[in-house]
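Holo prediction. Input below; ligand is iron/sulfur cluster.
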Amino acid sequence: MTNTIADIETADVILITGSNTTENHPVLSSFVKRAVAFKGTRLIVVDPRRIKMAGFAHQWIRQNLGTDVAWINGLMHVIIKEDLHDKAFVESRTQGFEELQKTVEKYTPEYVEEITGIPAQSIIDVARIYAKAEAASILYCMGITQQTSGTDNVKSLANLAMLCGNMGIPGGGVNPLRGQNNVQGACDMGGLPDVFSGYQKVVDLGSRQKMETAWGVSDLPDQPGLKVTQMLPKAHDGEFKALYIIGENPLVSDPDLNHAEKCLDNLDFMVVQDIFMTETAQKADVVLPSSCYAEKDGTFSNTERRVNRIRKAVDAPGEALADWEIICKISERMGYSMNYADSQAIFEEISQVTPSYGGITYSRLEAQSLHWPCPAPEHPGTPILHTEQFPIGKGIFHSIDFREPAETADEEYPLLLTTGRVLYQYHTGTMTMKTQGLNDRAPDCFVEISANDSAKYNLDEGALVEIASRRGEIAARIHISDKAVDGTIFIPFHYAQAAANRLTHAALDPVAKIPEYKVCAVKVSLAAA
Amino acid sequence: MDAINNIIINGNSFTFNTGDTILEVARQNDIDIPTLCYLKAVTPTGACRMCIVEAEGTDKLMAACTTPASDKMVILTESPRVIDARREILEMLLSSGNHNCAISSSVDDDWTAFQLKVQKDDGSDQLCPVWGDCRLQDLAYRYQVTGKLPESDVSIDPVEQVNPFIVRDFSRCILCGRCVQACNEVQVNNAIQFGYKGSTTKIITPGDKPLKDSNCVFCGECIQVCPVGALVEKDARYEVRQWETAKVKTTCPYCGVGCQLYLHVQDNQVVKITGAEESPPNYGSLCVKGRFGFDFINSPERLTTPLIKENGEFRKASWDEATELVASKFTEIKAAHGSDSIGVLTSARISNEENYLTNKFTRAVLKTNNIDHCARL
Ligand code: SF4
Ligand code: SF4
Ligand code: SF4
Ligand code: SF4
Ligand code: FES
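Structure of the complex:
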């Protein structure tokens, strides 16, 4: 997030899109709800489902799946046409405005209505509400990123925020909500193919030399590696031989699961390090038991870049070890010795080689958590990013045109499927499904469908149905809900027995290589008795 | 700060900001005024009157949590009148329901009968589940109040046990309203409110249904704020006693909000979780996963030894054997097919330190940049 969670309560307008906030980020959603209920903040929700947050919104608008670039361009069209943009900000802090203006020219409210299904008047209303706010905050989540146009969507939201001068101010910003506890940290620490910790690029000679010195090695590879969504196809083709998987369960979470399964089967050697025998671990050649968060010291970085401590409370079961201890053991045996007394010693090394974490120490975290960038011991941390300038100097407007999603509904597969989470389960369920109460609340997979569609296809509440896409099929029970909108169904992806990702499409965003979980065409029929 | 804002509390003079309540000024200056219904950051209700103080020159006692401080006010927080009034309130609250922890003013057959009835209502022969962890009990002790028998005509709803996670014991509810405030003004889940009137007043969901059939999302904020034993974690009820647990502060392992929480540990097991009220970003709030989803830690299904697959079956192995196998396989594949034929998936679930080491291991030892995580998935 460019801004903090607490900062949300100071916004005049909040725009939420592609985030089912009350279920996926419940405590953060309270900040939004309080702002709306008690502080007069206006809330706009743009979502294909009538999620709970829509009930708090002054305006809920419903876009067709996969048409986000179009409505965002539509808002910018209206804002520029009505001269509501922040000219001082555009002038002094950005570049590329002229091209943007040209690109959004054709996105008239009427044209946008054709693509997105959002009434032209709503586009105009929402544009005015957003643009006239002193400070407007944008919150988004996977609904925006998990599309073939995910990168475009994110850039479009940034365009919108910059256009109205909503960057670098309290109550503003573009705020991605991270789905998993330490996604932010995994990225910050170099868990990406193209960067070391602190987003220092592997192609950059200076960064490589710095790491070589710090690590006492030579010849660090100088080309970006493969993303997970590229590794699997290469495994399928036999080019890719071994995979070391730590704490992930791609055999429920990956798109086009049937294909993913074949890819992993094709590996020569697979190691899985986890706390449970997951679906993925079953396929491994070696399984290594690790300790969970309650059994070790360390830090997590949350979605607002706040570095928080975790602390050991109980002993790990049996011989399970902390993930870092296991990595050290393997490394040692491969001839590179890693010696750390404890997690604090590792953190000290992180601070030395990672400028944005340079000023953070365990002793400072004891007193209070800190937002990176925090480059020096006396630096207070950075709750709000980009207050003076963007990392690259001026903010760049990216002129982006709408592209159709990879798959659209047709005669054979007449419904669109979108996937996501429910409040009571988490990710692939390996943790939450051990708690009886959570299973009581969310026991099984279900297909959320509108009353109209259920009538149209003759499907009663609770009926067992088969849902099929071009890639696979699963069975689940019908749940008629007013969250669903005609033509679109929703299935949670937590459940291995009815893994929604047997249906989803592995078509990737060309830049981020994120699969299109949020749009795929399906048909639903009563399961054979 | 406005120089003319001066208040005298218990003989000492303090300055304050216009709009501060007497309670806020007192707390800023470490003066302890007892409260029951007061909940920071929400609209004060003035429901319990426990925080009453005496203002010199007036004959009325006033609630410190709702009365703004004013210039030249002279306040006594523990005057004899204040103490008498507090004792009266405490006595009334203790006799309003099944408060079986209290010391009786007269131990007789009626008292014994009362204790037996409470045990029956509770379905337990132990004392109240929050014994030793209760504001009301603390205050009764502080002001040396003994219990009176409840009025015999108070009819009390039975304990609501049908919900996951939360047990509602109406007999111990003192109607302070904190849960209502927490649900509506902190979490804004709008699941509960005051219902009925007079002696039948009760905290209810719309239609007075059990929580599980209401809008309740089991965030447990209401348990966290309940000052007595009226709302208790189902699994911890009678199983977990505060004096037998240690608290360890940590970060929630689920979503990216990173809520700060306390693990309550008993016999090397996490038995309960509460929100850390003093810490951002959540200031004590949690959701159902963060508060109740901890059974996995102690699950019998946890992996406890390294495993090696042989002929399609896993067998147990030592760390030496397993790590040697992994190291030799990686070395072999690297030599035969090149570094870039190996990849590592790190995790959004493990710590920063561990992600950093995974990054170091992949690049410096395996010599590839094929490292990613499934966060986008
Ligand atoms: S709720 Fe408090 S006062 Fe009542 S019985 Fe329990 S410990 Fe005693
Ligand atoms: S349940 Fe607890 S918090 Fe709610 S009114 Fe009763 S005593 Fe107060
Ligand atoms: S658990 Fe949460 S939603 Fe349910 S009543 Fe309590 S505060 Fe309200
Ligand atoms: S308690 Fe809930 S909202 Fe907070 S970090 Fe955990 S999962 Fe997220
Ligand atoms: S704490 Fe002031 S009236 Fe209850």
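The pocket of iron/sulfur cluster (ligand 4) is lined by residues A 25-27; B 252, 254-255, 257-259, 282, 286-287, 289-290 (CB under 6 Å). That is the main takeaway for now.
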